[in-house]
Write a structure and sequence with these properties.
With 483 residues, the chain is an alpha/beta fold. It has two domains: 204 residues, no CATH class; 180 residues, 3-Layer(aba) Sandwich (Rossmann fold). Helices cover 57% and strands 6% of the residues. It has 17 helices and six strands. The protein has a six-stranded parallel beta sheet with strand order 3-2-1-4-5-6. The protein is elongated, with a radius of gyration of 26 Å. The N and C termini lie far apart (75 Å).
């Protein structure tokens, strides 16, 4: 800031600085289960402080639009938080990502149309009070492109997760060429608006770029199977942050630049973690179509492939669990679908009361979004100190009396370790087969999203407990109580 600084500007920029610090500490605290709640509250407070600081800096404002937006947004948030169940959190997160993306795109579009449509290329047009620059011009167009891609991509992800759109990959012929053409059109149009074209022709190009970006978002996500949504959600989260950062450059808002960059970087790091957990490269994610092959080689996993499966009922499981001194529970999407998390906690309490050590092994991509199992178990008040990530607990299975797998499949497949021609080979998995006894609660012998056979199901130390996750756990609990 140059020249005399007014008290109003000083207060506003102090608020921006405090907001940025709160965002940073909030995201840091979200990295651990125990502090995630307070981290979320801290980040929400940072957003409120950033908005107040913006109003202070603006001085004279039209309050009614702002009040209306705050009231409507708050009501939607309250209603959604009350009505949405914990098992619907993945699709809710997808909508949040999409909302952030379209909000950034709308900010950029508003910046472009500020007062009047620029009659010159964006590099020569000031955005608001910011002086003309190539950076601002590129930021406007990139915010539109990334925001629109995030919006429609998130809508498709929401549809796949909620069952409103088929979770199966949609592999259009020549999809990679189509996506490349759409990307070139969007970037080419952006370059024209920034460097060569203004006025009504420029506006026409901006509209065309917006439409192309919306289509590109759909095309990038439809080839991806529902089982790969954890990676998609974390990537879209990163996109929404990048779109916000670009919008910050477009309107010269430092707090939006910093907060958007934080979200973008955090989402990208999480995406890399998810890719590693699923044995995929980031390039596969960026170009779409990962998790879906055009051929059927390596596919299978039908019930007719299993020959030596041992089934057990709740009574048999309870008889074995009566004598175990250590138990590791491995939750999966089946637990989420059946909403069995509270019964799982009750089973853990019963086993602890009998002197058994109970732990929970969380695979990074178990469920349909990063941290899905952590959220469900936290809802059931499972103690944080009993939750362990893959790297923390994998060496403990060989010294464990029993493992209870609830609805997980590919993340416990031993082929990922010792079968080089398996599509899962190299993917980090939970070594549940090393335990003395392994129980797998599953509706059937159907395969997971990788569509491959799971040798765990016919291992000598594995018992399959067929049925709904909630009912199966309830049956085990009832038999333990009556023993």
């Amino acid at each position: 800031m140059t020249g005399p600084v007014s008290t109003q500007d000083l207060i506003a920029h102090a608020g921006y600085l405090a907001s940025v610090l709160l965002f940073m500490f909030g995201i840091m605290r979200m990295g651990k289960v125990r502090t995630a709640r307070s981290g979320n509250q801290m980040a929400a407070g940072a957003m409120v402080l950033a908005m107040i600081s913006q109003f202070v800096e603006m001085g004279q404002i039209e309050p009614w639009f702002i009040i209306a937006g705050l009231v409507v947004g708050s009501l939607v948030g309250i209603i959604v938080s009350i009505k949405v169940g914990m098992t619907e959190m993945p699709e809710m997160v997808a909508l949040f990502n999409g909302s952030g993306g379209i909000a950034s795109a709308l900010v950029a579009l508003a910046a472009y149309a500020f007062h009047r449509i620029p009659t010159v290329p964006l590099m020569n047009a000031g955005m608001g009070e910011a002086p003309p620059s190539i950076v601002n011009g590129l930021a406007v167009m990139l915010s539109i492109v990334i925001g629109c891609v995030t919006f429609t991509g998130s809508l498709i992800a929401f549809g796949k997760l909620s069952g409103k759109v088929s979770g199966s990959p949609v592999l259009l012929p020549g999809r990679h060429m189509i996506n490349a053409a759409l990307l070139i059109m969007a970037l080419g149009g952006s370059v024209m608006v920034v460097f060569t074209t203004g006025g009504m022709p420029g506006l026409g190009i901006v509209v065309a770029v917006t439409v192309v970006a919306l289509i590109l978002g759909v095309m990038l996500v439809i080839p991806i199977g529902g089982g790969d949504m954890p990676v998609v959600i974390s990537l879209l989260n990163s996109y929404s942050g990048l779109a916000a950062a670009m919008a910050g450059f477009a309107i010269n808002s430092q707090v939006l630049i910093v907060s958007g960059s934080l979200v973008g970087a955090a989402g990208l790091i999480l995406t890399q973690i998810m890719c590693k957990a699923m044995n995929r490269s980031l390039a596969n994610v960026l170009f779409g179509g990962f998790g879906a092959e055009d051929t059927s080689s390596g596919k299978g996993g039908g019930a007719d492939e299993y020959k030596n499966v041992k089934a057990a009922e709740g009574e048999e499981v309870a008889m074995i669990l009566e004598d175990v001194e250590s138990l590791i529970v491995v939750p999966g999407y089946g637990m989420a679908v059946s909403q069995a998390q509270h019964l799982v906690r009750e089973l853990g309490d019963i086993m602890e009361a009998r002197g058994c050590k109970v732990s929970y092994a969380i695979h990074p991509v178990a469920g349909r979004m990063p941290g899905h199992m952590n959220v469900l178990l936290a809802e059931a008040n499972v103690p944080y100190e009993q939750l362990f990530e893959l790297d923390q607990i994998n060496n403990d299975f060989k010294n464990t009396d029993a493992v209870l797998v609830i609805g997980a499949n590919d993340v416990v497949n031993p082929d990922a370790v010792d079968k080089k021609d398996s599509p899962l080979y190299g993917m980090p998995v939970l070594n549940v087969w090393e335990a003395r006894t392994c129980f797998v609660i599953k509706r059937s012998l159907s395969p997971g999203f990788a569509a491959v056979k799971n040798p765990l199901f016919e291992a000598d130390n594995t018992y399959m407990v067929f049925g709904d996750g909630r009912k199966a756990v309830e049956d085990i609990i009832n038999n333990l109580k009556s023993s």
